[in-house]
Design a protein that fits this description.
CATH architecture of the largest domain: 2-Layer Sandwich
Distance between the termini: 63 Å
CATH topology of the largest domain: PmbA/TldD fold
Strand order of the largest sheet: 3-2-1-4-5-6
CATH class of the largest domain: Alpha Beta
Strand content: 35-45%
Largest sheet: 6 strands, antiparallel
Number of strands: 16
Number of domains: 2
CATH superfamily of the largest domain: PmbA/TldD superfamily
Structural class: alpha+beta
Length: about 450
């Protein structure tokens, strides 16, 4: 079944659902091919491939709503599937807010090329995939005799999603994702076994880093943990490494969603137009970045994608509002999910920020922990290095940071110039003043 046949089938399902009694219907056809390779300590550990086709059907009938899915795409069986879906919907309770979006929100520009689909995907064979993982693992092993274990991986994904809605929307989205990297564990003379990793995720195969990058980065990071220990509890400046800053910033995502606001589970409720962070905090949701890992022309509601400023110099400007919860709250829909998150960047590198720090902790990883979207309270275990007078002194671990996100964002004093490129969250190095760390 090619793309033309899949699109034709989706329209048939929508039309059939209407004929069987649905007021409106929404159909999503998803095709996905996923391949992954793992090479561990000189041996091929895993080579897996999965291909899936699935169809999702949402029924809207007499203010009632239900959703259904199937992998059986034979028309005779789909006919019965649709009939049963419509019949079951009639037994559900009414929900006046469950409707398809107003078609005026569907107006996306189909001529925009986000360049998220690598046309060379079909030319990458299994031998090449295995060879990439093998070379990364072999190269890494040769870098340090203290390596106890080394696991390298490669993977890629090709997907196509077709969405059709009975009130006028049609969209086809096709893309690719490629990833590779390595994890290492090394022997510490003190008996520890520090480990770390280096991975990259990109839209185009040619943009994957060279083998040497993965090997050197993973080993450098693991070596930086040799001799790690706790230090005294207290307040330190926190330098948050760019590739891990997203973990902390992501804690803002839930409270920014309309679903959290409607359910009274957001500490940001009612704060639109108010200050929620320092002037250094600017967050922009940009779905139209070429080759972006979160790029899209429309979201799952089929609402056309637009660049939106979420927080501007500390002032909350917008929420993530989907169609359903937007109707419940009486709010204009924006999008219920994030795309690419970019920030207001500064002019200093991480090294520059470290050099300007008198007493701080460079956080290079998190171990467990959580945040409360209702109150903003958080607690996370951290891994990193102690910094004094602008120099990294020693590695630390088994420490925790805790506090409140509102207070933490107010203490943000520096944004780096180094957005992390292998994520849809382009977070830079971030500097927070006087964060409480618990240790000894």
């Amino acid at each position: 079944m090619d793309k033309k046949d899949r699109l034709k089938l989706v329209h048939w399902v929508v039309d059939t659902a209407r004929k069987k009694g649905a007021d409106d219907a929404s159909v999503t056809f998803s095709y996905e091919r996923d391949i992954s390779v793992s090479h561990r300590d000189g041996e091929l550990e895993e080579l897996s491939e999965s291909t899936s086709n699935s169809l999702g059907l949402a029924i809207y009938a007499n203010s009632k709503y239900s959703s259904h899915s199937t992998n059986d795409l034979r028309k005779d069986n789909l006919q019965k599937f649709i009939e049963e879906a419509v019949a079951m919907t009639k037994y559900l309770s009414k929900d006046e807010y469950r409707t398809l979006p107003d078609p005026k929100y569907y107006d996306y520009d189909e001529n925009i090329d986000l360049d998220i689909n690598d046309k060379s995907y079909s030319r990458i064979d299994s031998d090449r995939r295995v060879d990439i993982a093998k070379k990364i693992e072999e190269t890494t092993h040769k870098k340090d005799k203290r390596i106890i274990s080394c696991t390298a991986g490669y993977g890629d994904n090709h997907f196509e999603t077709i969405r059709v809605r009975s009130n006028g929307f049609e969209g086809v989205n096709e893309g690719t994702v490629f990833y590779a990297g390595v994890e290492v564990t090394i022997q510490d003379d003190d008996g520890g076994r520090p480990q770390d990793w280096s991975y990259a995720t990109v839209r185009h195969f040619k943009d994957l880093p060279e083998v040497e990058y993965f090997a050197e980065e993973a080993i450098r990071r693991a070596r930086s943990k040799l001799g790690q220990t706790k230090i005294e509890s207290g307040r330190y400046d926190m330098i948050l490494e760019n590739r891990n800053a997203g973990r902390l910033i992501y804690a803002l995502y839930g409270p920014l969603q309309a679903s959290s606001i409607q359910q009274k589970q957001s500490f940001l409720e009612g704060k639109k137009g108010e200050r929620v962070g320092s002037e250094k905090l600017t967050i922009v949701d940009d779905p139209l970045i070429k080759q972006g890992l979160g790029s899209r022309l429309y979201d799952s509601d089929c609402i056309a994608a637009k660049k939106r400023v979420m927080i501007d110099k500390g002032i909350l400007k917008d929420y993530y509002v989907d169609w359903y919860y937007g109707r419940k709250l009486g709010m204009e829909p924006t999008s219920g999910s994030r795309s690419n998150m970019v920030f207001g960047y500064g002019d200093k590198s991480m090294d520059d920020i470290i050099r300007g720090t008198g007493k701080g902790i460079l956080v290079t990883g998190f171990i467990g922990g959580n945040s409360n979207s209702t109150t903003g309270d958080f607690s996370y275990g951290i891994i990193g290095s102690y910094v004094e007078d602008g120099k990294i002194i020693k590695p630390v671990n088994e420490m925790n940071i805790s506090g409140n996100l509102s207070e933490l964002m107010m203490s943000l004093t520096e944004m780096g110039n180094d957005p992390y490129e292998y994520s849809s969250m382009k977070s830079p190095t971030m500097l927070f003043k006087d964060v409480y760390f618990s240790g000894i």
